[in-house]
Amino acid sequence: MTIDNPNYAYPARSSNRKGPNLDKIGWVFMRASGVVLIVLIFGHLFYNLIWTEGGIQAITFGFVAGKWADPFWMWWDVIMLWLAFIHGSNGMRTVINDYVHKEGIRKVLIGAVVVAAAVLIILGTLITFTFDPCPAGADPELLPSFCATL
Ligand code: HEM
Q1: DSSP for 80-149?
Q2: Domains located in the chain, CATH noted
Q3: Is the CB of 94 inside a 6 Å radius of any atom of ligand 1?
Q4: Is 140 in the pocket of ligand 1 (CB under 6 A)?
Q5: Which tens digits make up the pLDDT trace of 84-133?
């Protein structure tokens, strides 16, 4: 019995093709980013839910503002955002290549994944780096304590 190649849309790379093997790079990237994501996601969950007193109830605007006052956590969050989106969208590219057999639809779907990931990465990065922890006119009760001294 012969089992069909499940990767219909993306025929196997021939051994004499020139240039970098992007699929191999993507394969290695999924494993490397997976390992880094374990550290970033579990570090994030531990900090927010276990090391912070009050658990999930304590995650307020003031909490996030206080956390992002430290560039370490700002970069932690932004790298987690970038890696999760690049990893997730590259994973969706693999799923689409495996299951979508019509070339036109495959290209449209991969294009949609790339556009969605790019928009969300740009928006998330802008929000992180332009975040104002002490917005004028806000209820001081909701702001981090350091806003009072500004
Ligand atoms: C704890 C962190 C994570 C680890 C260790 C991890 C690991 C992996 C690995 C090793 C693969 C490749 C599987 C394969 O080629 O057969 C993969 C695929 C994938 N990952 Fe993750 N991942 C993590 C988080 C995420 C997150 C946060 C997302 C979504 C934003 C995501 C979405 C995907 C998708 C869509 C695939 C493709 C699935 C497939 O090929 O069938 N992963 N992940």
Answers
A1: HHHHHHHHHHHHHHHHHHHH---HHHHHHHHHHHHHHHHHHHHHHHHHHHH--SS-TT--GGGS-GGGGG
A2: 23-149 (1.20.1300.10)
A3: yes
A4: no
A5: 999 999 999 999 988 998 999 999 999 999 999 999 999 999 999 999 99
